[in-house]
Write a structure and sequence with these properties.
By secondary structure, the chain is an alpha+beta fold. It has seven helices and eleven strands. The strands form three sheets. Strands 3-4-5-6-9-10-11 form a seven-stranded antiparallel beta sheet. A two-stranded antiparallel ribbon has the order 1-2. A two-stranded antiparallel sheet has the order 7-8. 31% of the residues are buried.
Length: 190
């Protein structure tokens, strides 16, 4: 009887039960940002490593799953990047340096210059993150990139172009971590 109930639940409520767990972090299969009738789904996730240390679990949520970077960058609608910290402490300065390097390494000089002021504004929002902390970077169409730490709103950065450049930190030609890029694109099993 229990097996039948489980099968019925999987058929009628697949997104509710199927979540991904990485390094002890439970990632929901779907999330809601603004409109409760407009959910976005987990596209993929992986672990950001540096040397031999696991720094955070990164997850990408989209309206429609894709493993093509160009399609993701052009995809309309809400998007989310979630960073669930695993390492004991990541200093604010390390985060800021990472954002600057990621923007520089994955955007041409003209784009970087055009985004510099907003990147500076973005960097001012950050603090030292500790194990268990979560950063949510949510793109809300017509509004911009909402930055949350542990569900507390820290600020908003305007412009779709900013979020596209931010996505390239993970998905660009020179990502922070190739394995994490593959995970976020949902290519880990290949």
């Amino acid at each position: 009887m229990l097996t039948r109930i489980l099968i019925l639940c999987l058929v009628f409520f697949p997104g509710r039960l199927l979540a991904l767990q990485i390094e002890g972090v439970e990632l929901p299969s779907q999330v809601t940002l603004l409109d409760p009738n407009d959910q976005i789904s987990l596209n993929g996730a992986g672990v950001r490593t540096k040397f031999v240390f696991n720094i955070y679990v990164g997850a990408l949520y989209l309206k429609k799953k894709s493993d093509k970077v160009d399609a993701i960058l052009k995809m309309p609608g809400q998007k989310r990047i979630a960073m669930h910290f695993l390492y004991e402490e990541v200093a604010k300065e390390k985060l800021v340096d990472g954002w600057i390097d990621g923007f520089k390494n994955n955007n041409n000089a003209e784009t970087f210059k055009a985004l510099q002021e907003r990147l500076n504004q973005f960097n001012k929002l950050f603090v030292t993150m500790k194990k268990g902390d979560v950063i949510y970077l949510d793109y809300l169409p017509g509004i911009g990139t909402e930055v949350r730490f542990n569900d507390d709103l820290k600020g908003m950065i305007p412009g779709e172009d900013f979020f596209q450049a931010l996505l390239k930190v993970w998905l660009g030609e020179n990502p922070a971590d190739d394995s994490l890029k593959r995970g976020m694109l949902g290519l880990d099993g290949e």
